[in-house]
Amino acid sequence: MDSTEWLKEILKTRSETLSPEIRRRLDAAHEIVIFGSFAAHLQHAESDLDVFCVGESRTHFKSPLIELMILPEHDVFSEIWLGSELANHISNFGIPLGSHPDWFSLTRVGPLSVTRKEKRISAYVRSLERHWGLLSDQAKLHYGVKIRRELQRLQFLQNGQAVPPTKLLDIAFASRAGGGFDSLQCVSGPLQKKILAFFPLSFMP
């Protein structure tokens, strides 16, 4: 069984858990793309199935087994979508379950996706400044990983590249072989200092 047929079987099984209305919207979609860990063959026992569709109405549904996003056709040809982080990830790493979507060839990382990621990282750090003393050691570790991944994603976006699946970011970080964490260079000096004040062991060689 090839990858496409395997993914179709997984989608068929997991879609049986959907409500009748969400299932109807999925069945009515005319483009279906699997992305994330299953598309990269990096899934584990608790991985959900990430599904993007072009269909009749905007939909976002998430459960432990499946996360489904549906956009109408006019949305996927908009400049905002084509320049977004998610659109570029799906077009570069997703696996279509049918014909190759026309919009795949039109995606380009846009400046808005870079700005959004920068603001997201800054917001995380501001929140940590307010709540750091209230966090458990486990929570601190969780946020350290979260910010490290976001910095890696920002570096890809700043270079005009699609962001790889999360597991590949983790593999790249684990294989740095004492070479430091160069993704810190993609944010300003003051923000670098704040991040290192929280997570010196997460980012230093």
Automatic annotation (TrEMBL):
Annotated GO molecular function terms are: nucleotidyltransferase activity
Q: Which domain of life is it from?
A: Bacteria
In this chain the Polymerase nucleotidyl transferase domain maps to 22-59
Gene3D superfamilies documented for this protein: Beta Polymerase, domain 2 (3.30.460.10)
Q: Which InterPro entries match?
A: NT_sf, Polymerase_NTP_transf_dom
The record's keywords, sorted A to Z, are:
Transferase
- What is this protein called in UniProt? Putative nucleotidyltransferase
Q: Which organism is it from?
A: Granulicella mallensis
